[in-house]
Amino acid sequence: MNLEKMNIGAMIKYHRQLRNMTQAELCNGICSVTHLSKFENYNKEVNQETILLLLERLDISLDSIQKASESIAADLSDLLDAVLSYDKKRAEECYHRVEEQREYITFSNYIGSYHLYLYRYFLLINDFESAEKEQETIRYIVNSLAAQEKEIYEYLNAILLMFKGNYKPSLDILLKIEANDLLPSVWKAELYYFIAHNYASLEDSSSCIAYGSKALEGFSRSFNYLRILHTQFLLGVAYTDLGLYENADEQYRFIFRNMNLINAEELLSAMYNNYALLLEKICEVEKAAQYFILSMEHAHTKKEYLMSLCSYTELLISQGKKEEALSNISKILRETKINSMKKQELIFRYYRYLLKDQKEKAMEFLESDVLPYLEKFFFIEDYNKYALSLAKFYSTRNTDKALYYYKKIAER
After folding, report:
1. Locate the HTH cro/C1-type domain: which residues (predicted)?
2. DSSP states of 233-288
3. Is the pLDDT reported for residue 183 higher than 50?
């Protein structure tokens, strides 16, 4: 029987200790204590007859170990497929099947894959505390991993950084992984997607489209329909930002047509929000307001709701609806502190000064707090937008400062 994936020596030691047996008690009449010790601790080769006798004394069948090895391989493969397909329900079922075999996995060469796939699973379900525990566990065994497994570990660390809002360091790692070309092919489409996602978050829409298109091609080849919708959603945002409104509308229409077919309800809030942003860009303001409200109604998380509320409030500001906007801003500022949305908190503190006719304070806050934050975290489009407001403000007050901010915008 082929047991090359199982560390039988370590397994025998574990079950011997579990039964409070000494080495002498286990190996009596089978082999020497020295021989057993080397087998248990170094997986030193012994003949199959000796293994069978040791397992028999421990009341473990070799056939059950072989079946466990085959089952572990299949269940880990299913878990990875479910996670990469973004099928959360199936992934949870696979996760529980895998966990039932934790004891056998501990004594197998699947231990690296096990912790890596669990790390990715916890990222899928946004359980960042458990993901960080897996990250720490893998850090201790990383030197024993194969080259591809080490690359997957770096890749997962980059995704965790992205989820925490550290887009630039995440992007740098992902681009390095792309250049190394060591990541297994099954992960490649997702790699391109997350590169595109980072570029979108850093407001580099052209690069987002380039990598989003590569992701879309990869997901299409594997018929990964939900991830196709995720990518088209990302492309819709990027096309809107670039003023390619027909292209953006084409992406959104495709998503609206197909999302009900694959039960993609979790996309609804973000979809409505970003479609509203497109409508706002093409001056369909009333319709945009309706979609922002729909987005808030379909939000699954507090953060989704707040993102839509922020977008809707900016629309109100642009329409001169000061009182309603101020009411929303009070709620935004309370909630963004709790939900770690620093960018939105800073921007709406600035808007509150403006709406309360405190323009000098607004510009002072813009210069001292908002712009440094946007620059530090590479929010280029936002930086240029607010730097332009500051440059115009200084144009009649301080020519040197006005020129400084115009120059900063030009450099970007």
Report:
1. 12-65
2. HHHHHHHHHTT-HHHHHHHHHHHHHHGGGGT-GGGHHHHHHHHHHHHHHTT-HHHH
3. yes
End-to-end CA, the chain: 63
227-236 confidence digits (pLDDT tens): 999 999 999 9
Please, are residues 178 and 170 in contact by the beta-carbon 8 Å criterion? Answer: no
Burial of 94 (0-12, 13-18, 19+ CB in 10 A): buried
CATH number of 8-60: 1.10.260.40
DSSP reduced 3-state for 6 = strand
C-alpha triplet 141, 144, 145: angle, nearest 5°: 95
The proportion of the chain whose per-residue pLDDT surpasses 70, expressed as a percent, equals: 96
CA 102 to chain centroid, in Å, comes to: 25
Length of the chain in residues, anyone?
A: 412
3-state secondary structure of 108: strand
| CA–CA gap between residue 384 and residue 373 (Å, rounded) | 13
Q: Tell me the Ramachandran region of residue 243: left when phi exceeds 0, alpha when psi lies from -120 to 50, beta otherwise.
A: left
Residue 293 identity: I
As a three-state string, the secondary structure of 45-80 is CCCHHHHHHHHHHCCCCHHHHHHHHHHHHHHHHHHH
Listed in sequence order, the residues at least 6 apart from 168 whose beta carbon sits closer than 8 Å to its beta carbon are: 198, 202, 377, 378
31 vs 52: CA distance, rounded Å: 12
Contact by Cβ (8 Å): 189, 219? yes
pLDDT 10s digits, 1-44: 445 556 777 777 867 877 888 999 999 998 888 888 888 776 67
Residue 194 φ/ψ, nearest 5 degrees: -70, -30
For the entire predicted model, the pTM comes to 0.74
Please say whether the beta carbons of 208 and 234 come within 8 A.
yes
CA 300 to chain centre: 17
Hey, what are 30's tokens?
Answer: 């089978």
**How many CB atoms are closer than 10 A to CB 76?**
22
**Is pLDDT of 289 > 90?**
yes
Cα–Cα dist 218/222, whole Å: 7
Domain boundaries along the sequence of the chain: 8-60, 358-412
Structure letter (DSSP) for residue 371: H
